[in-house]
# Entry
Amino acid sequence: MKLTFPHMGYSYVAFKALINELGYEAVVPPEPSKRTMDLGVRYSPEFACIPFKVLMGTFLETIEMGAEMAISSGGVGPCRAGYYGVMHKKILNELGYDFDILIFEPPQSNYLDFIKKLNRVKPRGMSWRVFIQLIKKNYRKLEAIDQIEYLMYRIMPYEINKGDTYRAFKKALNMLDEARTKEEIEDALWEGRKIIARIPQDRSRNPLKIGIVGEIYVVLEPAVNFYIQRTLGEMGVYTDRSIWLTSYTQKNVIVEGRIGEHDIHQMAHPYLNELIGGHGINSIGETVIYANQGYDGMIQLAPFSCLPEIMAKGIMPRVSREVGIPVLTIFIDEQTAAAGVITRLEAFLDLLKRRREQKAQEACNA
Amino acid sequence: MKKGYLGIDVGSVSTNLIVIDAEDEVLASLYLRTQGQPIRVIQEGMAQLSNLVPDGVEICAAGTTGSARHLAGVMVGADIVKNEITAHAVGTSRFIPGVQTILEIGGQDSKIIILRNGIVTDFAMNTVCAAGTGSFLDQQAARLTIPIERFGELALKSKNPVRIAGRCAVFAESDMIHKQQLGHCVEDIIAGLCEALVRNYLNNVGKGKEILPPIAFQGGVAANAGMKKAFEDALGHEVIIPKHFAVMGALGAAILAREEIESSNKRTRFKGFEVTDFSFQTRSFECKSCPNHCEVVQFYQNGEVIARWGSRCGKWDVQAS
# Structure
């Protein structure tokens, strides 16, 4: 069977490997492009948000490439995304495609359903032990991908030759792509990190630091968010984002000690003590965390009409004032032109630079 | 030889050129319509400007801003290419010391800039909706067959503005037609429209922003006295319209260019008013390297590529300086 999955940043490398190793044929979704958007917009409800439309386009593109089934994620709570998988499937079936979407809900919401679905993916004749080992191994690959991407944004603002870091990252990603066994994955990660860390850098720079929060899909998919982290990195800005597929940073790097969902909600508590769906509460809590860590500014990415992020945006001015960090909210929709985003980013960087200079001067005078 | 500094703001609707001296005194300024042809307008503007600039002034720096700032920058040889938010903030704070809020409404975008102690602390721009910008006013003026220049004075004559839905340009228009069909006079409708646009602006762009005086109102729409009054009524504060309200972006660009040259001690890259005689051309091709099929724009000066942009991955981008 030919299996596909949504495109989310660089995670396709791991999903492809898992599907192929399970004995299916992986149809790797193309990076979302204008064509993806056109297809998605044509067959989606007008009021659906951009992640829905992009996924719709992606599924249509992969069907052209021969995909028969997609694996996707669902969701619980007051965000429309929970219904998206079902909607996609209904629309595709109405268009006449015999296409199935296997939607994995968070296991704690219904264990039985989760295991049933795993059982559908598990090839007959493969033992559960081997099956779980394969999943674990490729999850490790996913973590490794997150780690090198994370490292890339850390090095980028210091690079001397524009584009070096990204090229090194692509090389590292290729190495991970070719790694088969557990040991090979560890080796590729080790080597990849070395390649990225060894590009020529100017460490005397003191780059602006920006934290990126928002809705998961637009945060994770560079092709949808105008490659915002890379763009900022190549403009000499140090960026960190709150969401990673494997939550690698939250557990290990962001701060000493461990920061989990619970702590983020705690930080949001003075401003919002209710789950509002999606990553709404996270956007608030993480803004507080980034401010406490001395970041210069925040960017909130949200799909146009995304209710959780709209609510978070409404609360943001108070958070911004009280913890003292400027926040730029960018709503993403099909027609948002890159030029407009660049203008806002440039102005935001000017603002942050002047603000930093003023702070330094105040510190001098004090 | 007196030193002059050139600022150019090429927006969707208007193109503004300005020359200032070392003391921010305006030596010459021009306000033209872009009419979708920035190259021609910049060239014509430069030709006209060269006649307006007093004799014995030498251009020592040039800066560009606005949505065609990169194009204008490579055309004239700019020392600095700056986004319009920073340019406006710099320009206005020079002319209205201590300004804390800037309301700017241009042809296709509207923005709010919040300053404290002379630095920008927050800003917002309209994102997905152009309701309430100059283009919409323009269009409605044409529909009512009123010259846009008289829009403001008519609005001020109104005693009893009608209520118009301001959230969306399309709905605002049908609301206006409805009010017309009921027989309301044109003055009341226009005043109602101004109030609706201000409401939409404050609810949309100005949402959550702390609007403190002194408040400056600028951009092409500031010429409309009806809008000024509607802002004052809604905010309960005086709204100041700077003398050069329509060219503040260009002014800011000129000031930034001067600062850039003075701080770096470099010579200007300005090509001179002769750019009027060059032949500029834009040609584009579709890159087939990936499914994005980006339209890559190549910009020629006298047959030679001097800039290229438009690819999402950046592989084609070169910018000759």
